[in-house]
Amino acid sequence: MNKPDKTSRRRFLQAGGALLAGNAIGSAAASDDSPRSLTEAAPALHKLLRKASIPAARGARVVIVGGGWSGLTMAKYLKRFNPAFDVLLIDKQSAFVSFPISNSWLADQVSLDFLSHSFFDAANNNGYHFMQATVLGFERDSRQVYTDQGYVDYDYLVLAPGIEYDYARIGVEDPEAQSLLFHRYPGGFVTGSELLTIKRKIHQFAGGNFLLNVPDGDYRCTAAPYERACMVAAVFKRRRIRAKILLLDMNSEIKIKKAGFARAFEALYGDYIEYLPSSLISGVDIEGRSVETEFDEYAFDDAIIYPPIRASSLIEEAGISDQYSPQKAARTDPFRYHLVGDERVYVTGDSRSQPFSKGGHTAHSEAQYVAEVIAAHALEREVDWRSPQTMCFSAVDIEPLRAMSIITYYRFNQQSGQFAFDRTHLIEKWDSQGGQASLAWAEGMYRDMFYS
Question: Which of 52, 115, 278, 350 sits at 20 to 30 Å (Cα–Cα) from 443?
């Protein structure tokens, strides 16, 4: 176990002190209650730089940042592949809420208990530690992770911090406007509160234009925005309200399960869904409730706005993002997932560089492989590369729940130097058997992540 590096912590202290001092000086004139000196702000700074109150490591410590599908799977399988590891999972949320299957929840096909699970149960059942904290940064020289609950030493670090919305790419650059857009018209792919707000919107909508969109580039779950449009339409149809769903796709066509979704839009929801491809959003009038594209303007009565995404800012702030990546993904080895030049730090899930699906099953599959890579590295061994598996169910109808599916792997094309789909099995016929299979799949995934 490496020892804390006092020089590194001193640098962090100096940087944090300068920041707090600058904030104190800048805000002193604005309010009599503002801190007027670094001394007054020091207690908060010292909290950041003390050692976190967690059990002492009993073996090489692996710290995982992010408790999504990737991080949860990683924590379990690290202990399975190397029981001697001391594994710590850190997440800022107090409980897990699943985004896969959340579209079915929006349409009342499953309960909130089906999506919600305890980090405590996952840790207790699988022999690792959980810490609720916000990660502020990390130092690779000293191998320390800094959180709002203190710092933690690591022997290996796995970064699975997820995504952030990139509102600037739809013409909303002002931070205040971004915050307002996020809270009024959330995209529904980052926090559980977004899902709660979206469900209220759908079930209380009185009629008119309801706008949804599909981002361009890589985004979390390729099929999800199309599936969500179907589930929203199904609720409106059940409620028998007069509504038009404007589905603005920033891509030139449906990106996945094209025939299945196109058939659903026409056969099931021809009176509800208006599909508008090649609609690149260039601006949003939040107060006026309209969006602009290159050629048109669309007014709406309510909306779910899913902007293009980027890797967590933690990646960029640490100086490990790929300068050529439009989504600021990490600069990693494409086969081993570690940072280029650092086999102690790995990046998985949404922030990794590979163009694989950003769906839950892919994150679960690749995390098992990376856990094996890290366990082998600790024993000075290697494992052969294997492709992650992507399995994705998409519901299109309710009462009964009907869904279609795709299963695929990936291969590396030596000539092009790119990854491509491999061994793809696509079922675009949606039926109740597919709907029940989607729920069984989710149950199996939750069981694997949260139970031994």
Answer: 350
Interval 3-26 mean pLDDT? 45
Mean pLDDT value of segment 125-146: 97
Tens of pLDDT, residue by residue over 16-39, are 444 443 443 334 344 445 555 555
Give me Rg for the CA atoms of the chain.
23
d(CA 328, CA 320): 9
Close Cβ partners of 122 (under 8 Å, ≥ 6 residues apart): 72, 75, 76, 89, 96, 130, 449, 450
pTM: 0.91
Determine the Cα–Cα distance for residues 240 and 452; give it in Å rounded to an integer.
45
Distance of CA 403 to the CA centre of its chain: 23
Q: What CATH architecture is 167-308?
A: 3-Layer(bba) Sandwich (3.50)
Strand 342-347: give its sheet, edge to edge: 129-132, 86-91, 61-65, 156-159, 342-347, 338-339
61-162+312-385 CATH choice from 3.20.20.70, 3.40.50.300, 2.60.120.200, 3.50.50.60: 3.50.50.60
Taking the C-alpha atoms of residue 87 and residue 371, their distance in angstroms, rounded to an integer, is 11
CB-based contact 395:231 (threshold 8 Å): yes
